[in-house]
Design goal:
About 25% of the residues lie in helices and about 25% in strands. With about 150 residues, the chain is α/β, with parallel strands linked by helices. Strands 1, 2, 3, 4, 5, 6, 7 and 8 form an eight-stranded mixed beta sheet that branches. Helix 4 (about 85-95) runs parallel beside helix 5 (about 110-115). It is globular and about 40 Å long.
Length: about 150
């Protein structure tokens, strides 16, 4: 586990430096939008796999994510469906989340910029999620499997 000082140093170094120093491993090759522009963050990942086109897992993760963690949100296939908007991002910031990485879409981009929570998203789209499905996460102790509402 990294110390808080090491995490802050990683955030200050930038993606390219950390990627090169890690032996060129772990890079997600995608054109992510960064909100607000110029923001930086680092922290332990809290990955959530949402059902396709659904964000129920994001809501569930808000109760489990710890301060300083980066909430990493994905669906089986990336698509321009907003998993997070201004309301969920505000909740994440209140819980002390270090940043959001969304392999999908976010909406309310102007509100997200003003919020100041670092957010990276593959898409920006007003299209919201569909039904309330299943999710899975790997919080801290291993794969927890699928949970359904």
């Amino acid at each position: 586990m990294l110390s808080q000082e090491e995490i802050q140093e990683l955030a200050a170094l930038g993606t390219a430096t950390v990627y090169e120093a890690s032996g060129r491993k772990g890079l997600v090759e995608a054109g992510f939008v960064r909100l607000p522009e110029g923001s930086r963050a680092a922290g332990p990942a809290f990955p959530v796999l949402c059902a396709q086109g659904d964000n129920l897992g994001v809501h569930a993760a808000m109760a489990a994510v710890r301060p300083g963690e980066v909430l990493v949100l994905a669906m089986p296939e990336p698509e321009p469906v907003a998993l997070v908007g201004e309301l969920l991002a505000t909740q994440a910031k209140a819980r002390g989340v270090a940043a959001l990485l969304v392999d999908g879409a976010v909406r309310d981009a102007d509100g997200l910029r003003l919020l100041g929570l670092p957010v990276w998203a593959r898409f920006v789209s007003p299209r919201g999620p569909g039904g309330r499905g299943c999710w899975a996460w790997v919080p801290r102790y291993g794969w927890e499997g699928w949970r359904c509402a």
